[in-house]
Design goal:
The protein has a single domain, classed as 2,3-Dihydroxybiphenyl 1,2-Dioxygenase, domain 1, CATH 3.10.180. Helices cover 21% and strands 34% of the residues. The longest helix is centred in the middle third of the chain and has 13 residues.
Length: 148
């Protein structure tokens, strides 16, 4: 696994309220939006911030299981260049002592992802998103939607 974080996702109680805070309050510009579900903001240095409804994020990562691990409402993400790389990173993490929270699988948004928890319980998503690009250094670029 390369030494990088691609995306920080915050599980929020009220997506509209969170958007007002970041967009109206802080002046951030939306890079990509799935109305009512998730919003992404491109940050500097190839990093992105996502806001995801907390309940939906709990379901997506299967954090509502009975392992006893408390979900803090935050996930870190490593974006991979392929499904094969996702599987390799998940295996590497498990070998290093991570607990697989959700095995990698095809997901509703058209990509492939899984989740693991590090030894301290921090949640990581490992994802291949065919709609997003990584430069040779692994910096993430979220494409802006076409002008309407």
């Amino acid at each position: 696994m390369d030494q990088r974080v691609s995306l920080i996702t915050l599980g929020v109680a009220d997506l509209d309220r969170a958007r007002r805070f970041y967009e109206d309050g802080l002046g951030w510009k939306v890079t990509q939006l799935v109305e009512g579900q998730v919003v992404f903001y491109q940050l500097s240095n190839g990093l992105a911030l996502g806001l995801f409804g907390r309940d939906d994020l709990v379901k997506d990562g299967r954090f509502d299981d009975d392992t006893g691990a408390r979900f803090a409402g935050l996930t870190l993400a490593f974006n991979a260049r392929s499904e094969v790389e996702v599987d390799a990173v998940m295996a590497e993490a498990e070998k290093a002592g991570a607990v697989i929270q959700k095995s990698a699988e095809k997901v509703f948004w058209g990509g492939y992802s899984g989740y693991f928890r590090d030894p301290d319980g921090h949640a990581w998503e490992v994802a291949f998103n065919p709609f997003w690009q990584l430069d040779p250094q692994g910096n993430l670029t979220i494409p802006e939607p076409p002008a309407s």
